[in-house]
Specification:
2 copies of one chain form a homodimer. Chain A has 34 helices and 34 strands. The first copy, chain A, is α/β, with parallel strands linked by helices. In chain A, β12 and β13 form a beta hairpin. Chain A starts with a strand and ends in a 6-residue tail after the last helix. The interface between A and B is large, with 49 and 49 residues.
């Protein structure tokens, strides 16, 4: 019989931490913790295979499941000594989702399941705490009502507030057992009114409904959005964990909390966590009550000024600190844990690798290696290259004068300036229209994820460093200030105020996720200093990776930045980008609007010295590293003059009438410019353009060689070719110019002529093309466009629908489509190598900075990836990880 | 030592007719004729390999060539008894090009080579005919000057006219020996003035210069144009034939002529040819003198009323008639021959398969099979499918009243109406701007080819049925009237006149290539009746071909035409084409401009009955044959309202303001619509469109089944897919509608759901896609666009340059690019079949009617091709030929 259920508890477990795919992250780690003797309440995991089966079978369960659940419940009863549904000693359970990848806040949880009008009485008697029993029951109805029965949670909150009002209470904890009994009645009424049925009393019905709700939530919009943002396939499914309840809300010797084994912001090796006395776990995560710090140290650094667990529950704290150490050495990584203290006894409810800021990630990796917990390879493998992006986010200029508006918790590092919006939808709308926005909410929820993604920074007025806003912002790399409680947000009037200051929607503010400060207006930002940890990690990565990392750059500033970030040359210099400057575009326009070769040559003569200087600068900065220069590529009408003034400028320069310029401009209009007269087609029809560019390159190379005595290595790249003959023809133009310049200047430059592979036909005919081309650079932007028949500029109308429907797993312009575009890239590599064994192969599309695409490049053996300067460190790390993966190195010591 | 030279003559030959690739057509056939004992002047062929070597080696000759030429000349001297350069008995030779494929008028010829100031005296003495000798010399200087030395031929004609004027002569033949001697002096002066050097006197220099000129002319613009129009690769090269001269201009017992062994216009089995007494071959082809008919019969039918050869040279005619019969039986085909009679002896100078009108081609094929000279397969293999196009050209409506403007020779069948242009350039310009044009010239020359191609019909005032105009027009399938001598053309004033009538450039005329009539204005035309020969050939083709032939059609008229032409179903019904009608486009616009699903559904409800009726008509006409219906495909903005009136129309229909319509229309604007929101992307985002179309299909199918009781076989085709999931998603919409309609109407329709393969990714993922798609139809237009990254609409700016430079052999939108697009098509076919063994495979791009593309389809085993109605017969024949080729059947009996 198929095993659909894995039990754990009492120092044993059916599963272990390697079984994430089957048990989900939470289930696997509960099993693991149980196995290694940590105190875990007994329970069982319904596997992800049940979820898959469920969705494959019209939302039915496998027939054997019911019996396996019954038997697993019995197992729990044996360990705990209580019985599920028993009116004297009722066993209560929690039901939680647990997917393979951590999805914080995205899935639903039900606590205290098993309570009904009878068992609540039994619970009161058995615990000797009537208030606790009724509090547990009302929490259960509220959670079950919200999550399983889909009753608006506002309805329950309203009743709760109402009752506190009637009684004149401020805090939930002021409510007595009798109040709670009455509240339960009102809650049951809320459920009956909303659903038309009484609140279910049979614990078995409750259990199956809760399991169904967990599976159902796998396909809710929030979950789908989260999976899309984090590249999690829908097929993975979620597991369901059913576990005996332990109670942090039985009294003052009870507590519940969450912690990171190290500081997730800085990476410092200090225990970092929060707890609430007499509370259930949800109270901490929801950020409703302000929690206390675990340690004296933490209390000093992070506030608030409430006593720490180290002080108030020293024994429990010692035990927790021991568990912390066991877990880090066992998992070789910093852990994010959840625990409950029931009447002085510690219970572990969850452990997982903790999310952390990039600074923390680097520091932790370096420290773990120093402590011998990890080796270098393992440290590298555990890092998320995409996260390095945050390092490149700016911070506040320390010399800038600032006007403080308010303070909050420093929840996610980096600083951001932007206009204030008060809703996720507004964030998306303003961001789409080109604004940088700061999303301000009293607290965030999974419904806000799209807005958080669109925002440059996030500010909340409630919740701690582990609140939803903080966790998600760190994951996304957005600067975040949390729980700025002195700021009051008024959604209605679209403003927030603090002391006597008011900020309206649309006003600019600056937040600093490193200090928790909120400032008025736009404060100057500067680039983060890269830490020694960063340099160490990068040097490990460099010693391990096989592929080189180049950069896409054409300005001296970009080229310099890229060099600082470790670029090993330029993989793509887009020469057309050099012509958008005020003083150049007129000559460029004159060239493209010339009626004949003579006119073009006149304009090209004006462009030559500018172009030459561009290359001198780049060669200088790259100091002997290869510089790949792409010949003019874009549809010429990108340069066309639009307004009257621009038209007049060109007419002046070219000495013709405005009407004539307009006529010529119209001639350049194209229906599908992306597939039009661009790329090497320009140089094939107007070889003088290629001549000018080649001349600029060779003259610049000679000039730099003269000055520096250093080698200059230009790699001249022909764009948008689909045939060998195009390369041959332009190569002969280039070779001719090279000879002519060498003869004139008396200095020879070594150079290569190669091509972009960015059309399917070029990939197919790569064997032939390689007979002429010394290198291929995969232009995966265009190759994706043509392989999919998908214009990047126009895909917005339907790409989201494609991703939502699961037709596309992710945006193929961001992450390489391995099945289609990837096959062409691999085919072209193979065919290119077959005809020229020493052909250089690289990639210069946007994908060159995308970690999963970089893995692909490693797999097919490319020589280098090239990406934007700010992604160079990401590419260096990703390339190292790819090397490790391809060697199947074992990471842990 | 490599053999670069093949000799022939005296009943022997080194080569034979199978060696066209090496000897060219002319050389191979001269060798063959010599071998089978026909009277051929001795000579030798410099092979095409020399041409290739010449162009591969910077226009140098292979080192062994000089010695081989010397020895071959010696061979001719031995047979003839004269010596090259001998001042007493000089051997004269002709030097002619001879490519693998016949290229009439495209390459250059030099006659009488070997003459100089000394040898002309020897020739006069040896021939006893001083006038002949000097006439030959002046012809030689003129030809050599024109062709080899590139002196403008007008200069020579001017001197000739001048001298005739001085002497008061009308005809060249009036000039006496002394006149010609003086003319030679003037000609030599012309050469010296133009070239700066005296006319070359050394026959060896003359020979090598002439050979060089032939090779040089292989790369002249005319030759390149002709090769492009006729799909001849530049790599083939040309051979050079050097042959002892025989003279048709030695006196009244001499003649020269050209003939077809059957009538090339009608195919009638009657000897059809012309000759000139006392002339050289070029005189006939140039159409300068009006030639005489070979036969009494020909003279009666074709005029002019000059005595025939049958009457004036009966013995020679008998011999020629015998040769005619020998050649047809030997070559199994109608021949086009050139001959010269020197002092009563017949010499054969050329034989080749004769160009013929399509009617003639069909009749000859049928007759040769009836006579046992060919079998059916051989007859089919010899036909040019593209030529069938002409059958589909209209003829004059016999009931129409016509105003005759003039008469000429019926030179190429079919009638055409158009505006008059007097130059090839004007023809191209007016045709490009959308006019149908008739090109009128006094005579045409190879420089006019682009204009002849652009024209719908050609009219000349000089030259016979074998003149340049006639031969080229027949080859191109253009109606042509030749030698309409009563019409006078005045290029200066841009008009032509006849009797008292004048036609100006831009006026409309009608020509009838079947009768030779030229008529004023536009005369109503009707479609050619298809002959019994056509039906017979088509039935042979149908019995031989493996692939089915469908049609691309959406209107009932097109569908009916296609059925009459033998289409076996519809391979592509472009549903969007059904929505351009006045009464439909408003509803269509309303649909695409709707703001939400409700708005779209309202408009779709209006479109449903129209769409249903469309399908009823098509199912009716196709009577049980498969009908492939493509779901809505184009970028929606193709339907957008443009002017105010159109905007208002849509606003009215949708009940919104014009401003709102304009706003919505702007939203649909795309940068690259070809790669935008189109194809199945429309149905993925707006499934209601797919629903409506599916509903219309199934309701129409049910209606036709009810009426006819016949099966209806819709094949629903999903356009522009790049993934299996798109098909799966839309298939489920279609299946759902099918069930719903079947339940409602109580009638089930069998149908298939398949897809276009028109994106590279679809070809790559064809294996997966075939799991959902029951058929593939290769949309090679779009597949070519995306594989090349080449917009068909925008390629005009550079495609010609690509073809001229030889980067592209031909327009890839006309003839399938086997190397790139073809590999994808083959790959998709293989992968599709691997995952679904019974998958139906077809092609529905423009290439489906292109013979070379059809051969490719046969090679990779497609099930059908689909093409426009008028190309269906072409496709049937081409498919049969492809079947024959793939079976490597031997054709001749």
């Amino acid at each position: 019989m198929k095993k659909w259920i894995y039990s754990f508890g009492d120092g044993k477990a059916d599963g272990d931490s390697t079984m994430r795919h089957l048990l989900g992250g939470k289930g696997a780690n509960l099993a693991e913790m149980s196995s290694i003797g940590l105190p875990v309440p007994p329970g069982f995991t319904v596997t992800t295979e049940v979820c898959t089966w469920y969705y494959d079978h019209d939302q039915q369960y496998p027939p054997e499941l019911a019996e396996q659940v019954r038997s697993a419940i019995a197992g729990i009863e044996t360990i705990v000594g209580d019985r599920f549904g028993d009116r004297h000693r009722p066993l209560l359970v929690s039901v939680r989702s647990g997917a393979r990848a951590s999805m914080p806040g995205m899935m639903d949880t039900v606590l205290n399941l098993g309570l009904n009008d009878q068992t609540v009485v039994g619970l009161a008697a058995a615990s000797g705490n009537e208030r606790f029993a009724w509090d547990s029951y009302r929490r259960f109805i509220q959670m079950f009502g919200d999550v399983v029965l889909e009753v608006d949670h506002y309805e329950f909150e309203h009743e709760l507030e109402q009752m506190k009002g009637e009684r004149g209470f401020d805090l939930d904890t002021d409510l007595e057992a009798d109040d709670l009994r009455q509240l339960v009645d009102r809650y049951k009424q809320v459920v009956e009114t909303a659903t038309g049925s009484p609140f279910p009393q049979d614990p078995q019905d409750q259990l199956w409904a809760a399991i169904g709700a967990v599976f159902g939530s796998w396909m809710n919009t929030r979950a789908i959005t989260y999976r899309r943002l984090h590249d999690i396939p829908a097929e993975w499914g979620t597991a369901v964990n059913v576990q005996a309840m332990v109670f942090g809300n039985m009294g003052e010797d009870c507590a519940t909390g969450v912690a990171f084994t190290r500081d997730p912001s800085t990476g410092e090796n200090s225990f970092f966590g929060e707890f609430l006395v007499n509370a259930q776990g949800e109270d901490v995560v929801a950020g409703i009550r302000t929690p206390q710090n675990l340690t004296v140290n933490g209390r000093a650094n992070h506030g608030p000024d409430l006593p720490s667990m180290e002080e108030t529950m020293p024994t429990v704290f010692q035990e927790l600190n021991r568990v912390r150490d066991v877990l880090e050495r066992h998992y070789h990584d910093m852990q994010d844990i959840e625990f409950t203290v029931q009447r002085g006894k510690l219970w572990m409810l969850q452990t997982r690798n903790g999310k952390r800021s990039v600074q923390a990630a680097l520091r932790i990796a370096v420290d773990l290696v120093a402590d011998g917990i990890l080796d270098q390879a393992g440290a590298l493998a555990g890092l998320d290259p995409a996260q390095l992006d945050q390092l490149l986010h700016p911070t506040l200029d320390p010399s800038a004068e600032v006007t403080i508006f308010g303070h909050g918790l420093a929840a996610s590092p980096g600083a951001a300036t932007g206009v204030v919006v008060f809703s996720a939808d507004d964030a998306v709308a303003r961001a789409d229209s080109g604004d940088t926005v700061i999303l301000v909410r009293s607290e965030t929820s999974p419904e806000d994820i799209h807005g958080m993604h669109a925002a440059a920074g996030i500010l909340t007025t409630r919740g701690g460093a582990t609140s939803h806003a903080a966790v998600v912002a760190r994951g996304m790399g957005r600067p975040c200030v949390c729980g700025a409680g002195d700021i009051r947000v008024d959604y209605e009037s679209g403003e927030m105020s603090c002391a006597n200051m008011t900020v309206r929607a649309g006003d600019k503010i600056t937040i600093d996720g490193a200090s928790g400060r909120v400032m008025l207006g736009a404060v100057p930002l500067i680039q983060t200093e890269l830490s020694g940890d960063f340099a160490k990690i990068m040097s490990w990565a460099d010693s391990i990776r096989r592929m080189q990392v180049r950069t896409n750059a054409e300005t001296p500033a970009d080229a310099r930045t890229a060099r600082e970030f470790g670029a090993e040359g330029i993989g793509l210099c887009r020469t057309e980008h050099m012509f958008f400057d005020e003083d150049r575009i007129v000559a460029m326009r004159e060239m493209i609007l010339a009626d004949d070769e003579t006119g073009r040559r006149t304009a090209l003569d004006k462009l030559l010295p500018m172009q030459r200087q561009d290359f001198i600068d780049l060669f200088d900065i790259m100091a002997g590293l290869p510089v790949t220069i792409r010949l003019l590529d874009p549809p010429l009408h990108e340069f066309l003059p639009r307004g009257e003034e621009e038209l007049a400028g060109v007419a002046d320069a070219a000495g013709v009438t405005v009407a004539e310029v307009r006529r010529r401009a119209q001639r350049l209009d194209e229906s599908n410019p992306m597939l039009g007269h661009r790329g090497c087609r320009l140089a094939i029809t107007f070889p003088e353009i290629c001549e000018m560019q080649a001349r600029a390159i060779f003259e610049a190379a000679a000039a730099v060689q003269d000055k520096k005595g250093a080698a200059v290595m230009p790699e001249i790249m022909i764009p948008l070719a689909f045939s060998k003959d195009e390369i041959a023809r332009l190569k002969s133009v280039i070779d001719q110019v090279a000879k002519e310049v060498a003869a004139r200047i008396g200095r020879q430059t070594d150079y290569l002529v190669g091509t972009m592979i960015e059309l399917p036909r070029a990939a197919l005919l790569a064997g032939e093309i390689a007979e002429e081309a010394a290198f291929f650079s995969f232009g995966t932007n265009d190759l994706t466009q043509t392989t999919f028949g998908l214009s990047r500029d126009d895909a917005g109308n339907f790409l989201d629908a494609y991703i939502d429907h699961g037709i596309l797993a992710k945006d193929p312009f961001v992450s390489l489509d391995f099945d289609g575009v990837g096959e062409l890239v691999e085919m072209a590599s193979d065919r290119g190598r077959a005809s020229r064994s020493d052909i250089k192969l690289g990639i210069c599309g946007e994908h060159g900075g995308d970690p999963s695409s970089i893995r692909f490049c490693e797999k097919i053996g490319l020589d280098y990836v090239s990406c934007s300067p700010f992604r160079v460190p990401i590419a260096r790390l990703a390339a190292a990880q790819a090397s490790l993966q391809s060697k199947s190195t074992r990471h842990a010591v």
